[in-house]
Amino acid sequence: MSKEIYVLVHGAWLGGWCWDRVSDLLSAAGHTVVAPDLPGSGADQTPIDQVTLQSYTDTVVKTVQAQGQPVILVGHSMGGIVISQVNEVVPDRVRAMVYVSAYLLQAGESLYGKTQEPEHASSKLFANWVQTSPEVASINPGGVKEVFCADCSDAEVARIKAKMRPQAIAPFGTPLTVSPDVNQYAEKRFYIETTEDQTVPNAIQQKMYTAMPVKAVMTMATSHSPFAANPQQLVEFLTAL
Q: Which of 13, 57, 91, 189 has its CA 20 to 30 A from that of 177?
């Protein structure tokens, strides 16, 4: 089995820490894993007013360029819009893009716009959304299990709650500047859908990967946090590409 470099991009409210169990399994198999904190997330102290989709993209582009070979770029949830933008900047440095219960958007679409579509209506996200300022949102602590990880252990839910940070919302409303040709890069796009997802409902996941073709779809019967609910199966999918 060839040794790969995986760059794992977290979603909103989370940090590179959310990939710890996946990273450990991939590393144990001999692969290289990098899981950066996006600006304003995890341990990164970028001020909220400087957090943009461009700053996310710049951070991951630098990470990708620092690797010794083309990488497998993995994005969870909001991380999907980041990996799409990164691939537009350095397509020759990206061997594959894997969208894990992620937003897979077309040119001109925004994450916020996608949440307004009918297929997204069953999401529990906005029922637990706490707007702490015009620029920042948090998740109601009592709703974290329901939203992110209904199938996770109490210990894992507690860990996620303890590590989550408020989220800058500017990236949510930023339209993607990717190729208008939905078939470009289709051969290196993969989607891992989550059938029990209460954040990005499976119906909207299916709509996205149908409109924006991918090479293969893999299915996990988990919540929105497959890296916590079933890291072993997620790693099996990632290493089978």
A: 13
115-147 per-position pLDDT tens digit: 999 999 999 999 999 998 999 999 999 999 999
| Structural domain count of the chain | 1
- Domain encompassing residue 235: 5-239
Print burial letters for 114-129: b (CB count within 10 Å at least 16), e (below 16).
bbeeebbeebbbeebe
Look up residue 5 and give its two tokens: 């470099």
Angle separating helix axes 79-89 and 53-65, nearest 10 degrees? 60
What b/e string do you get for 204-226 counting C-beta neighbours within 10 Å, with b at 16 or more? bbebbbeebebeeebebebbbbb
Q: Tokens standing for 107? A: 């040119």
Alpha-carbon distance of 89 to 226, in angstroms, equals: 28
CA quadruple 76, 129, 150, 222: dihedral positive or negative? negative
Q: pLDDT tens digits, residue range 47-68?
A: 999 999 999 999 999 999 999 9
In angstroms, the Cα distances linking 49 to 60, 88, 135, 206 are 19, 25, 8, 33
Q: Where are the beta strands (DSSP E) in 45-144?
A: 71-76, 94-100, 129-133, 136-139
Q: Which helix (H) or strand (E) holds 89?
A: helix 79-89
Q: What are the tokens at 196?
A: 């029990």
Per DSSP bridges, beta strands 216-220 and 71-76 are unpaired
CATH of the domain at 85: 3.40.50.1820
